[in-house]
Every structure is written in C-alpha cells, then in structure tokens.
Amino acid sequence: MPTLLALITSLTFFIIFPGCTSVESHWEATKKKDSVIAYQNFLEEFPDTKYAKNARSRVEDLEWEKASSENTITSLLQFATKYSLSEHYLELEAKLEILEWQAALQKDDIETYTAFEYRYPNTKYLPELKAKLEILEWQVALQEDELETYTAFEYRYPNTKYLPELKAKLEILEWQAALQEDELETYTAFEYRYPNTKYLPELKAKLEILEWQAALKKDESETYAAYRNRYPDTKYLPELKDKLEAATWSEIIKNGNRNDFKNFLASYPDTKYKTQVLSKLEQATKDVDARIREGINFDQTGDSFREKAKQLNQNGLDIKDVIKEELSSYLLAIEAFSNAITIDPTNAQAFRLRAFARTKYDRDGNLSLMTSSSGVTKHVAQFDSVAITDIDTAIRLAPLDPKGYFIRGEIYNIHHFIQWNFFIEIPQNDPFINMMKPDESLAKKAIADLEKALKLQPNLCRAYESIGELYFRTSQYPLAAEFLSKAHECGIPQDLEVIEKLEAFG
C-alpha cells in the first residue's frame, strides 16, 4: 500500500505538470506518422509547446516535397503564396522559371513572352526570349504598318535583323508625316535622319522654300549668308543678294566699326550705299587718329610726371601725389587707345601703344611687397599678361613694323629690370638668394625682339641701348660694351669710360 506521503507527492506532480507525458507521446506518435495532417493535428492540439516550431517546419518541408514532386506551375505558386519567406525560395523560383518558359513556348504569343520577361528580366533564356519577341513584334508592326509601331520597334531593337526593311518602312511613313505637317523643323529632322533619302530632290525643294520664308522673317545678315551657302544656286538669288546687302548695311550702320565698313565695301564694291560707306570710313579714320593723338598726349603726360617723381625722390620729397597723377595719365591713355581699337579693331598702332601704356602703368601702379630673409623689403611691380596680348596682336596685324618688335622687347626689358633691381639689393649670403634671381628668359626674349626690330630698321638707336643694358644685367659685359657703343654712334650719348671698363672684362 502506498503511503499517504507518496500519494500526495504524485498528486502534486500531476497538478504542477499536467499532460507532460501526453505531449511527449503525441509528438513521438506524430513524428512516426510524418504527414502534413498529423503535424497539423498536433499543432491544433498543442500550438504553444516546444515542438510547435519543428512541427511547422516539417509541414513546410512536406508540402514543398509534394509541390516539387508534382512540379506544376499551380502547385508551386500555391506553395509560394503560402510560404513567401520559405527557405526553398531559390529552388522554387528556378522550377517556376523552367515551367513558365515551357508554357510560354507553347502559347508562343507576345503577351506571354512579355509577362515572362517582366517576371524574369535576367532569365537564362534571355537570348531565345529576345529572338521570339523580335519576330512576333515585327509581325505585329507589319500588320499595323504605322509610324508609331515601327518607331517603338526600332527603339527596342536598334540592331534588329529586320533593320533594312524597317528603315525603308520608316523612311516612307516619316516622309508622309513630314508632307502632312509641311514644317521646316520636320523636314530638317527628316534630312538629318535620311541624308541620302530617295525623296532628296523633293525634300531639298521643300526646305529651300521654307528656309527662305524663315530667313525673310528673321531678316538678319547671318541668316541670309547661311542660306546663300546652303543654296548657292537658289531661285531666290537676286532677292537674296539684295536682302543680304540691306541687312548687313542695317547692322553695321548701327554699331559697326571701321573694319566692318571696309569689309562691306570689299563685298559690295558697287553698293548703293557707297557714298555713305566712304563717308563712314573717312570719319572713322579721323576718329581713330584723334583717339590715338589723345592717348599719346596722356601717355607723354604720364612720362613727364614720372620724371618729376624721380627728381622729387632724389631730393627726399614726397612723391605720392605725383605718382597718382602719373598713373591717372596712363589710365587715360589706355582708355583713349581702347576707344581707337573699338573704332578700328585692326589698328596695329593702337594695340602697340596701349600695350606699352599698360606696362608703364603696371610698373608703378601694380605693386606687391617683397622681402628676403635678410630683411630686404621692397615694393616690386607685378605685370599683367594683357600688355603682352596687346603687343602680340599688334605684331600679328603688322608683322613688318619694327615698332611692334621694339615695344615688345621693351616690355620684356622692363619686366627683367624690375626683377634684377630687387635682386641686386639682396645680400649675397642670403640663403634664398637663388630663388630671387631674375628670369633670364625675359632678357633673352627682349634681346630677340629688339634685334628683329633692328633688322627691319637699323637706325632704331634706342634698341641698341636697351640690348646693351640687357647684356650688362646678364653679365655679358663685352656684348654690353658692343651695343652701348653702337647706341653712342647712333646718336644716344653713352659713358665711354664705362664702355671701356666693360670691354676690359672681355
């Protein structure tokens, strides 16, 4: 007989752990059956036990085995709907792709292939799929025989095997559309797309008419000139010539320069506007000469203020106000030369004089503070490249004018002198002295230009003197003596004693 204590203990166990033995036995029995129904019955009776997860997983596996075994689109899609996050997803997709491709091949229509392409854009059947669609879509395009359909086909299959026939179809339909619209833009687009079209004669005739109408509306010389270049034998040629001449004259009379009037007269020597053109040319020449004279006066005034500043500086007097007057004069000179260039953009003299005025302004008006490690402090000119651009233009316009080369040589000469003048004040023991050396290429370019000027005009005495100074600054003393002697012989007095000392260095 069990004791009272044993009965109480047994009762307590079943109260605390009700059905434990029942769950275990049910689970073991379910595993033995190993069917979807068995696992579903187990989950219905014991939804929250520790075996629930395994039961659900096994149901999914069994249903996958069934769907996979049946291997139909319906069974696989049903499984996919029920288990969207299944671990069998990749295998499922692979099976569906095969089955749906087989189904598409059986149906063999655009809608099915298109749906397949949308669902499997990177399918392994892509080449065959594209080939099938190309054939079917081409058949549809031929049946519809419409511009929009052929255009869409061309966009989708730019390298189609039907390209020659497609192009022929498009050419016909696009030409018909162009004729219906009968607009310049449409014909122009057609010409661009089919430059060798069989409709070329008719197309050119249409374009000639419409482009002439467009040219008349714009009424601009540029448009008329372009039309003349495109249709040199146009039926509108007499009217075109008159229109081009009138439009060109109308434009240059408003804001043309001297060069424009010269070119107009060259293009239309018998123009009805000849008297007015000659009058404009004469007035432009007077205006240019007046502006150049004005600029030269301002430039000379600037030079005189600079000389005055030198004298004041030598006497220890303040030169700030005088320098301001100097710079103001050079600016007025630059403005006057610029006005001359506006009137005549081919005037080499105006470019040459403006270049030198700009250089002189920079020399005293565009200064930067420079120092060396030894304490040398000095304001040094910083030269703008615009002056060189100006003098290069002057030389291009008048390549045989010695003054152009002389001025460019003097500009480089001034650049070199400024650098050299700062360098010679630096103590020789300055550790950075080599970094402060003047740019010797400036001296070489200056000498080359000055020698060109002398070849064209041997009596250009100032060139001899400048070359002598450049050779002196580059420590080529015998050559310096030679050119300073030539300057003296030419009429620019030199210190003969200095020349003898320089010759002695040789």
Written description of the protein model:
By secondary structure, the protein is mainly alpha-helical. Helix content is 75%, strand content 2%. The chain is built from 24 helices and 2 strands. It has a two-stranded antiparallel sheet. Helix 3 packs antiparallel against helix 4, helix 7 (110-119) runs antiparallel to helix 8 (126-144) and helix 18 (348-365) packs parallel to helix 20. The longest helix is centred in the middle third of the chain and has 41 residues, at 274-314. The protein is elongated. The N and C termini lie far apart (144 Å).
Query: Poorly predicted ranges (pLDDT <50, ≥5 residues)?
Result: 1-19
Identify the strand order in the major beta sheet: 1-2
Q: Which outline best applies?
A: elongated
Main β-sheet, in a few words? 2 strands, antiparallel
Radius of gyration: 48 Å
Instruction: Give the amount of beta strand, in percent.
Output: under 5%
Task: Compute the separation of the termini in Å.
Answer: 144 Å
> Which structural class best describes the helix and strand composition?
mainly alpha
Count of DSSP E strands?
A: 2
Compact summary:
With 506 residues, this protein is mainly alpha-helical. It is built from 24 helices and 2 strands. It starts with a helix and ends with a helix.
Set down the secondary structure blueprint.
Layout lengths: L3 H13 L3 H14 L2 H10 L6 H19 L2 H10 L6 H19 L2 H10 L6 H19 L2 H10 L6 H19 L2 H10 L6 H19 L2 H10 L6 H19 L2 H10 L6 H41 L5 H24 L4 H18 L1 E5 L5 E5 L4 H12 L4 H22 L16 H17 L4 H13 L3 H14 L5 H9 L2
